[in-house]
Amino acid sequence: MSPLRVLYIGGTGRTGSTMVDQLLGQFASYFSGGEMAFFWSRGIQARAICACGEPVRDCPVWNHAIASVTDDPDRLAARMVALRHRFRWPHVLIMWIPGFSRARMREIAEIPSTAARIARDVAAEQDIEVFIDSSKEPHYSYILREGSDLDLRFLHLVRDPRAVGRSWQRRRTEAGLTTDAIMEQRTSPITSAYYMFSNIVSELFWGRRSDRYAFLRYEDFVADPARILEAIGEFAGTPIVPDSVLDGQTFPIGTMHTSWGNPGRVGRTSITIRSDDAWRTELSRWDKLVLTVLNLPLIIHYGYPIRPSGRRRATLRSARMRRADLAHRSRTTT
User: Which CATH number is associated with domain 5-332?
Assistant: First the structure.
């Protein structure tokens, strides 16, 4: 039997990943799992709400998957969360020390093996070919890649860091929890640190694996979603026919089982794909300056304009990144 294909949407938060995840999940043979890195901490311990409206632990899809790995979800959740603390983002900085990565992977081997069993159960029960994990965290993708037999494909999704910064400033209620908790908010310097770290590490972990790494700017996706969807389907190994779901820039949302992600995953019946340029008018001059200066290397690398009034480059400077860029691939094959 061939390994289960997992399309891992990676990078950093507030890049439109939940919307891309939800849209892909509408197509036959694709299943939107959501941010599986937080399945045990949010889905089980915090009693998060599945996109279907039921608590994750009571949702028939996830309940069956959980039962396939344990008869004591709370105990396993506590163990999974404890193990996750053994490999978080600070460990990435020292993982290139000889022997560290191998030793740490042996310690946390239960994380990827359990994640693979969960995904395989869902795939078998839902009769799908591609399981979508929109966790974004590059270090979690490393755990899955090195510690499981899953066929991981890394879709590196980025967005203009100033748009990301504005999104992190917004005050939102966490609709995915049973409480009225307010979602985390971040300052521009903190947002920039996460943006630089997550995107650089994503390229370090995956950028040289040309058959397992694809790059996508959210803005390119919004500009031509149908063409990009076809390119994603080719990359994931299961063709996508955009017209079967997409109506111009709008798509309906059927019953889904996204376990964790942006609040928008709960309660919506349709989504219109659009560019959110509110940052151009809503960000203060100071925040624009901070987000531009602190993220300047990646702004240039990813072809975004240095001046907010400018236009992004159609073609990336790096030949390696052009080969990985789904927008570039789709232009050169049509």
Answer: 3.40.50.300
